[in-house]
C-alpha cells in the first residue's frame, strides 16, 4: 500500500504499478493509464481475488470522489496501515520506533471544516470535492465524514449559489464550524451584485450562520453580513478566527493533538521556562501551552496573528503569551534566537519546515514537539533532527482525516 492509499504491484521489470482502490494481497485486473514517477498509474477493472479485509464502502460517492480513498478497508487493517505511515516516516529518518504507536481513531461526522469546490455547468450547480487526481468536481449529495451541521447546508447551498451573479463558472465555499455556528467564506470568479449580497444575508439568517464573507481568488475577504460574533473557544479562550481561517479538521483531533503536545513538555517547569511556538495560527496550541508555560508564538498570516493577539489581550494573557508575525520560510527563527527557549513546538503546513528545522537542530533546543499533517515532510525534517543527535521520546498518530491517506501526528524529540 503506497503513501497515497493505492495498492502497489510490481511489473516483471520491477517497475511499480499504482492501483487506486485495490488492497494489499488482492489480485486485480488492471489497465495502465499513464506513467507516474517510477512506474505506472492503473485502474482496477475487476477485483479477481478480493482480500478478506475488503468491506462494502459506506458512501455512495466512494470511488468517484477524491475525498475518501480507503472506505473499502476493514477498520483494524486501515488503522494499522495509518499508524504505519508514521512509524515508516520515523524509521526512514533513522529513529528507533516502538512496535505499536499511540493511535487516535477518527469517526464519521466529525469533520468541522470543509472546502467545497463549485462549478456552474449549464443550468445547474455542482457542489462537492475533486475527483481523485483530477480537476473534475464530483457532485455530492452528502458526505459521511462531515459534521451534520455542515452536511445540512449542502442542499440549500445549491440554489443559493445558482442564483448568484458572482458565481460565473467556478467558486469555492469554505465553511468552518465555530462555536457560534457555521462561518462561510465564498471565493467566486465575478463581482458580487446587490442582489447577491441580499441573498447571502438571507441565507445566513435562514440557516443561523454567524457570518458570511466573500472574496475574489487570492484577495482579502470582505464581510457581507455579521449576524453575531464569529467566535470559537480554544482551551477556554474566546477567539475570533478570520474568514476561512485554519482550524484543526475535527474537534476530537484537536483535543488529541493538544494532549499529546502537553504530554511532551518538560517535566520540570519553572517561572523561567519559555516555549517558542512556530506556525501558531489563531492559537489552537498557544492557549493550551500558556496554561503551563510562557509562550512566544510566531505565525505568518497577518489575519491569524491579528486574531491571536486580540484573544490574548481580551483574555488578559499578555503576560503569558507574546505573538509575532513572521514568515518562517523566508526568515526562520535563527539558532541564536532559539537558544532562549526550553522547548520548541511547531505545527507547519503540508510542506513541512525544512528551513526552520535546520535552525532548531543547530540550536540544540532540548525538546522539540513536531505536529505534522504530512508524514513525508515530517520524515524529511525528522532526518535533520536525527542527524543533530535527537532521540524520539514519543509519537502519536491522530486520524483526523478519516478514510483518506492523510495523517496528523505529534512527535516529541529530545536531545541527550
Ligand atoms: C497546520 S497550520 C497550524 C496552525 C495552528 N498551530 C493550529 O493548530 O491551528 C499551519 C500554520 O502555519 C502558517 N504558515 C504557513 N506557512 C508559513 C510560513 N512560511 N511562515 C509562518 N507561518 C506559516 C499558516 O498560516 C497556518 O496558520
Automatic annotation (TrEMBL):
Residues 1-48 form the TRAM domain. The keyword Cell division does not apply. SUPFAM superfamilies: S-adenosyl-L-methionine-dependent methyltransferases. Pfam families: tRNA_U5-meth_tr. It comes from the Bacteria. S-adenosyl-L-methionine binds at residues 248, 279, 299, 347. GO terms for biological process: rRNA base methylation. Keywords: 4Fe-4S, Iron, Iron-sulfur, Metal-binding, Methyltransferase, S-adenosyl-L-methionine, Transferase. The active site is at residue 373. GO terms for molecular function: 4 iron, 4 sulfur cluster binding; rRNA (uridine-C5-)-methyltransferase activity. Belongs to the class I-like SAM-binding methyltransferase superfamily. RNA M5U methyltransferase family. This is TRAM domain-containing protein.
Amino acid at each position: 500500500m503506497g503513501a497515497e492509499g493505492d495498492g502497489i504491484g510490481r511489473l516483471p521489470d520491477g517497475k511499480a504499478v499504482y492501483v487506486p482502490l485495490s488492497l494489499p494481497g488482492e489480485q486485480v485486473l488492471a489497465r495502465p493509464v499513464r506513467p507516474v514517477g517510477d512506474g505506472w498509474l492503473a485502474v482496477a477493472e475487476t477485483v479477481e481475488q478480493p482480500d478478506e479485509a475488503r468491506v462494502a464502502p459506506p458512501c455512495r460517492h466512494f470511488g468517484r470522489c477524491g475525498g475518501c480513498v480507503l472506505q473499502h478497508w476493514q477498520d483494524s487493517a486501515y488503522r494499522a496501515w495509518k499508524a504505519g505511515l508514521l512509524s515508516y516516516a520515523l524509521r526512514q529518518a533513522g529513529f528507533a520506533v516502538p512496535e505499536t504507536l499511540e493511535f487516535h481513531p477518527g469517526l464519521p461526522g466529525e469533520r468541522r471544516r470543509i472546502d467545497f469546490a463549485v462549478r456552474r455547468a449549464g443550468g445547474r450547480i455542482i457542489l462537492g470535492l475533486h475527483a481523485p487526481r483530477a480537476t473534475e468536481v464530483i457532485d455530492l449529495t452528502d458526505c459521511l465524514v462531515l459534521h451534520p451541521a455542515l452536511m445540512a447546508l449542502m442542499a440549500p447551498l445549491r440554489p443559493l449559489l445558482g442564483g448568484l451573479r458572482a458565481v460565473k463558472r467556478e467558486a469555492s465555499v469554505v465553511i468552518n464550524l465555530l462555536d457560534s455556528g457555521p462561518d462561510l467564506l465564498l471565493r467566486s470568479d465575478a463581482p458580487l451584485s446587490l442582489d447577491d449580497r441580499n441573498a447571502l444575508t438571507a441565507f445566513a439568517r435562514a440557516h443561523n450562520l454567524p457570518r458570511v464573507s466573500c472574496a475574489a481568488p487570492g484577495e482579502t475577504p470582505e464581510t457581507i453580513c455579521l449576524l453575531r460574533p464569529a467566535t470559537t473557544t480554544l482551551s477556554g479562550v474566546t477567539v475570533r478566527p478570520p474568514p476561512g481561517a485554519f482550524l484543526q479538521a475535527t474537534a476530537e483531533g484537536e483535543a488529541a493533538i493538544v494532549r499529546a503536545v502537553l504530554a511532551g513538555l518538560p517535566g520540570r517547569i519553572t517561572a523561567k521556562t519559555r516555549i517558542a511556538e512556530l506556525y501558531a495560527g489563531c492559537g489552537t496550541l498557544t492557549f493550551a501551552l500558556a496554561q503551563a508555560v510562557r509562550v512566544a508564538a510566531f505565525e505568518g498570516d497577518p489575519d491569524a496573528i491579528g486574531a491571536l493577539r486580540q484573544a490574548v489581550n481580551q483574555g488578559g494573557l499578555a503576560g503569558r503569551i507574546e505573538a509575532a508575525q513572521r514568515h518562517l520560510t523566508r526568515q526562520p527563527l535563527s539558532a541564536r534566537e532559539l537558544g532562549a527557549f526550553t522547548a520548541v513546538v511547531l505545527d507547519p503546513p503540508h510542506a513541512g519546515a525544512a528551513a526552520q528545522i535546520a535552525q532548531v537542530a543547530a540550536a540544540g533546543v532540548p525538546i522539540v514537539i513536531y505536529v505534522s499533517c504530512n508524514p513525508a515532510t515530517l520524515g524529511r525534517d525528522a532526518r535533520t533532527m536525527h542527524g543533530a543527535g535527537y532521540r524520539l521520546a514519543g509519537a502519536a498518530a491522530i486520524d483526523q482525516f478519516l478514510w483518506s491517506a492523510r495523517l496528523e501526528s505529534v512527535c516529541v524529540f529530545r536531545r541527550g
